[in-house]
Design brief:
The structure is a homodimer. The first copy, chain A, is of the alpha/beta class. In chain A, 36% of the residues lie in helices and 18% in strands. Chain A has helices at 3-12, 26-41, 125-135, 141-154, 165-176, 181-190, 194-204, 222-228, 274-279, 298-312; strands at 16-19, 46-49, 74-78, 101-104, 115-118, 208-210, 215-220, 250-258, 261-268, 284-285, 289-295. Chain A has a six-stranded mixed β-sheet with strand order 6-7-8-9-11-10. A five-stranded parallel β-sheet of chain A has the order 2-1-3-4-5, covered by helices on one side.
Chain lengths: 313, 313
């Protein structure tokens, strides 16, 4: 489906459910609520349905929102590459043909929806939604803030390599439309509670170095989370910390999911392909950021990982 | 002088010296070397003269540069609001009429130069230089990286309130011209040595809170710098740390210059005017970021500052 087809689908249907991906981020939420706000503004009924509770820092995206009552007729998935990213609470949308339209920017999109509109060159799904809504002159101040949030979060505030001139052009347009970039960026990238800062400090002060200090490993244990009263979603930014150390080209974060079960996040500089390394343990992802799950004693897991990484160094 | 006047001055003269401000940042250096590169590209002789050594992280701005021999005929100051910002090594340019042309974006520019081109609405001086050089179709890949550096550093990577749509438009154009934004942003905002990280951790782990945790104070002592073998310019980013703590609206950083002498940096959120508070101690600056110098025992200096801040809370 092309952009005009998407616009027609939005106009020709009613009683929309918009779903976002599990462990929601600024892009999926920004897109979901922007599409919902647009649909309501043209007189349609529309709800956003999320698998998880919305983390507090994204609260401003939906402080205007309350669900409407209607019989669902048209389901839109935003920023969801695969049905398994919907989460257990959205199981009914994982069935074949349950989703009418998927709007996404992942090259890995599995084409599970009846109609799919994917632009894998877009750094954020919000850039695609921007193109659709600006075609309809529908970018008001609240929608501008929602879409800016999606672009800023998915590009790491214009720092990640997926940033391009288009991301900046759209940011410019959204700022002109009133996007509250200053407060959004503070919420997204800066403000944290004292507990979160203390937990991060406790974790990073124990960071271990391997392979002539080219590999750095952080461990987020369940006990440290408990000690500081924080949850994983609050300290996820820590995954980018190892690569901020001069000379480090592979940054590993081990998140303890349960005793002896670790979710691994690997970030790399240009010298290393993160995806290849995580593939070796049944995981996958992108060339600079990938993940996998591993079981065993902590020191064994680290040993296996470091040995695999050093094969490629 | 207007933009056309600046372009004419660059074309009609030769043997240029371009000076940057003391404690140089990405904006003054990016502008200085970009103007120099442009002038050389049109067959002029030009040098950049800096008061201080260039911090290592800005090295890529001038890895192509070596000084030329000529008799100086035309002096350009970039991003220098006042002669006292030139530093002691550039004393000769502080004399009346020593500077032929000043290009700047500070509203406080004192007009010390024979000709002045100020645009105080520009978030970075590099935005002004961009306008001048793009008029001449002179934005090649190296110059694009230099000017991107100026815009990114002076806008805090598009996060500060001085960011506007123009900053994003120019960033887009500079990326299209080949600005190496990914590596630049890593160098500017992310990569630090283990020593610097350890020093920052030592300082911030002792951060003190006042006024119901609305004011936070970091102290950078000479002894901590010595202990970790770092200098102040390497850990300057720490000044923005206090305001990243939820609920803090005034972040104070005290830098020990000598025994009993402190340089104070104050950053505030919208609730507080930093400039007014620093004025009370003979300093000044902007509404959200200001500074002053204070003498006395550490605990006395902190007491005076906190009392003054609490008057306005």
């Amino acid at each position: 489906m092309d952009k005009q087809g998407v616009i027609k689908a939005l106009k020709d249907n009613d009683n929309f459910t918009i779903i976002t991906h599990k462990s929601p981020d600024g892009d999926t939420l920004g897109c979901g609520f922007a599409v919902c706000a647009y649909l309501r503004s043209i007189g349609k009924h529309a709800n956003v349905v999320n698998n998880d509770e919305i983390p507090k820092r994204y609260g401003f995206l939906c402080d205007w929102y309350s669900p409407q009552e209607f019989d669902e007729q048209f389901v839109i998935a935003v920023d969801i590459a695969d049905v398994n990213l919907m989460g257990d609470n959205l199981k009914k949308y994982q069935q074949p043909d349950a989703v009418d339209l998927c709007i996404d920017h992942h090259i890995s999109n599995t084409g599970y929806a009846k109609e799919t509109y994917v632009d894998a060159t877009a750094g954020a799904a919000a850039m695609i939604i921007y193109e659709i809504l600006s075609e309809e002159n529908a970018i008001d101040q609240p929608i501008a803030s929602m879409l800016y949030t999606g672009i800023a979060t998915d590009t790491g505030c214009f720092k990640f390599q997926n940033t391009d001139s288009r991301a900046h052009y759209y940011a410019a347009k959204l700022i002109e439309a009133g996007a509250d970039f200053y407060h959004i960026n503070r919420q997204m990238f800066e403000v944290r509670s004292r507990n979160v800062v203390a937990a991060e400090r406790a974790i990073t002060s124990k960071m271990k170095y391997f392979c002539s200090e080219r590999v750095a490993v952080n461990v987020i244990s369940l006990s440290v989370l408990k000690k500081y009263g924080v949850d994983l979603s609050q300290i996820e930014a820590i995954s980018s910390f190892p690569l901020t150390i001069e000379g480090v080209c592979a940054g590993v974060t081990l998140k303890e999911k349960a005793t002896g079960v670790y979710k691994i996040s690997l970030r790399t500089t240009e010298e290393l392909n993160a995806s290849v390394i995580c593939n070796a343990f049944g995981g996958g992802g992108h060339i600079r950021a990938a993940g996998c799950e591993m079981k065993g004693e902590l020191y064994e897991v680290i040993e296996k990982l470091i040995n695999k990484i050093s094969e490629y160094l």
